[in-house]
Design goal:
- The protein is of the alpha+beta class.
- It has one domain (4-127): HIT-like (HIT family, subunit A), CATH 3.30.428.
- Helix content is 33%, strand content 19%.
- It contains three helices and five strands.
- The protein has a five-stranded antiparallel β-sheet with strand order 1-2-3-5-4.
- β1 and β2 (24-28) form a beta hairpin.
């Protein structure tokens, strides 16, 4: 059975996609911890990030680095936080979260519920920044 992320990759479910290459995709988290919270996902469905073959593991991280640089150029923040948890969706992924304080990456705090227009605007800005890198 396909994961939620595989359905996004296959365009069976819509998402606010901000970047994509041959092996990876990045999209906005619809319930972000902070505006601009992105999920970077390998297109090959693998449950546990450390089960990815070395080349795909490295490729996902290099892709995430480029996405983080694009995000950082769009969202005013002190840093882009990185988290790999892997319990909520059985498909490896990296969270990129704009940070002002360490509390911004606390997954137990209430999630935001941004308006669709704000998500579209954010996605377009990150897409543009990603393409310019």
């Amino acid at each position: 059975m396909s994961t939620l992320f595989t359905k996004i990759i296959n365009r069976e479910i819509s998402a606010y996609i901000v970047a994509e290459d041959e092996h990876n995709i990045a999209f906005l988290d619809v319930y972000p911890l902070a505006m601009g919270h992105i999920l970077c996902v390998p297109k090959k469905e693998t449950d546990y990030i450390f089960d990815l073959p070395a080349d795909q593991f490295i490729g996902l991280h290099l892709f995430s680095q480029k996405v983080a640089k694009a995000l950082e150029s769009v969202v005013e923040c002190k840093r882009i936080g990185v988290a790999v948890i892997g319990l909520e969706v059985p498909h490896a992924h990296i969270h990129l979260i704009p940070l002002q304080t360490v509390q911004d990456i606390n997954f137990s705090k209430p999630k935001l519920s941004p308006e669709k227009g704000d998500m579209i605007d954010m996605a377009e800005k990150i897409q543009l920044a990603y393409r310019s890198l």
